[in-house]
Specification:
By secondary structure, this protein is of the alpha+beta class. Helix content is 52%, strand content 20%. The protein has 11 helices and 12 strands.
Length: 406
């Protein structure tokens, strides 16, 4: 073998070795670049596949990029899917980071219940409602917390539970909460309804024969003469009259336990309010009372029992008149949760702090001639319409009752 052949072979081997080294270095750089980009969640890169000794390697890298990009898109779609599912559940859900402060996620129901457009931290919740923020922080897995909460449209009681999870290597607390105000009101109303049924049954059974017997004896005493006949007749007539009054009084409470099932139809709220205001016009005029209605959302439509809803508004307006109001304001709007919210406000005497928790209880009244069933019936009607009525404020300037139709 001649020296030239050996030299040529050596140069070829050396050239191949150098090329391999250079290719390996470039390949290492490309892999490092790709890994750095993917680690930064960046997939907007592509290696050339049209020429050069590294085109096959570049094609492999581009294929890996496409696989990563496809997996990333599938994960994004899954997160979007689960997010949409959570936004349609009727439970508020908030995910709190392991620092106990940062709120990483809130579903649509949570924001609607809290009456906020976004929630990023527990500190933000503390500014809105400190007791609720404390309940969110204290609640642990396997235990429940309760907390009251008030926003612009209503007052609620939340039942709060929690569970722990690990998301992307971080420990988080998933807090779930529901408004249980309606359940509490329903249980309270059911208890009062059972009590009223028992009371009315027993009182009617006892009083009815007394009334009948007293009337019969009064008639008998009137047909006979005697020294004590006038006194006897007067006494029996008094007993009979008192019995009739008691029967009438007890009968009024039957309304609480025998409310008819709502006959619902669609109607514009504005038409109903205007009709109620016309019915009350004489009382407004005699008391120099100004009553206004403002609709903050256009063409508010209700699907409800007209007569029963009218009864609620008439009762609230009468209460305002009896409280000495000179101005009554009714406002209505559709809130972010697509519920119809109606506020009935007046500048009459405020409800005392002692009475605020009791005004919806049957038999309770602050009026000498009141029966104490008006607001109880109103709450029962609203519950039958899947709604609520609450006293949301009362001070020297204004007393406001809020009706929410869900």
């Amino acid at each position: 073998m001649t020296p030239w052949i050996l030299i040529t072979a050596g140069i070829a081997i050396l050239s191949s070795a150098v090329s391999a080294i250079l290719f390996t270095a470039r390949a290492r750089k490309k892999v490092t670049y790709m890994l750095d980009a993917l680690e930064d969640n960046e997939t907007n890169f592509r290696f050339r596949e049209d020429k050069g000794m590294g085109r096959r390697f570049n094609r492999t890298l581009n294929r890996l990029r496409k696989i990563f990009e496809r997996e990333k898109e599938e994960i994004r779609q899954q997160e979007q899917y689960y997010g949409q599912m959570l936004d349609h559940v009727q439970t508020g859900i908030a995910v709190i980071g392991n620092d106990g402060e940062h709120v990483e996620y809130c579903n649509a129901k949570a924001l609607a219940l809290l009456g906020v457009s976004s929630l990023s931290s527990i500190r933000q919740l503390k500014r809105i409602n400190p007791p609720l923020a404390d309940a969110f922080s204290k609640v642990t897995e396997g235990h429940k917390e309760k907390a009251g909460y008030s926003n612009e449209s209503s007052t609620m009681t939340f039942s709060i539970t929690a569970s722990s999870a690990e998301i992307r290597g971080k420990n988080v607390k998933i807090v779930a909460f529901n408004d249980i105000s309606s359940d509490m009101e329903e249980n309270e109303s059911a208890s009062w309804t059972r009590l009223i049924r028992v009371l009315t049954h027993e009182i009617m059974n006892t009083v009815t024969p007394i009334a009948s017997l007293s009337e019969a004896l009064a008639k008998y005493a009137g047909d006979n003469t005697g020294q004590n006949t006038p006194d006897m007749r007067t006494g029996l007539e008094t007993i009979a009259a008192s019995s009739r009054d008691l029967i009438k009084f007890v009968s009024s409470y039957r309304d609480l336990t025998h409310l008819p099932f709502p006959e619902k139809s669609a109607f514009y709220l504005k038409d109903l309010i205007e009709k109620v205001m016309r019915l009350m016009d004489e009382k407004f005029s005699s008391g120099n009372i100004v009553c206004t209605y403002t609709e903050k959302s256009e063409d508010i439509l209700l699907y409800a029992d007209r007569e029963q809803i009218s009864r609620i508004f008439i009762n609230l307006l009468r209460n305002a008149i009896q409280a000495g109001a000179s101005h009554i304001s009714i406002t209505a709007e559709i809130n972010t949760a697509e519920s119809v919210v109606v506020n009935v406000s007046n500048n009459g005497m405020p409800v005392s702090k002692e009475s605020r928790e009791e005004i919806f209880i049957p038999f309770f009244t602050t009026k000498p001639s009141g029966t104490g069933i008006g607001l109880s019936i109103s709450r029962q009607i609203m519950r039958m319409h899947n709604g609520s009525i609450r006293l949301t404020g009362s001070n020297e300037k204004e007393t406001t009752f809020t009706l929410t139709f869900r």
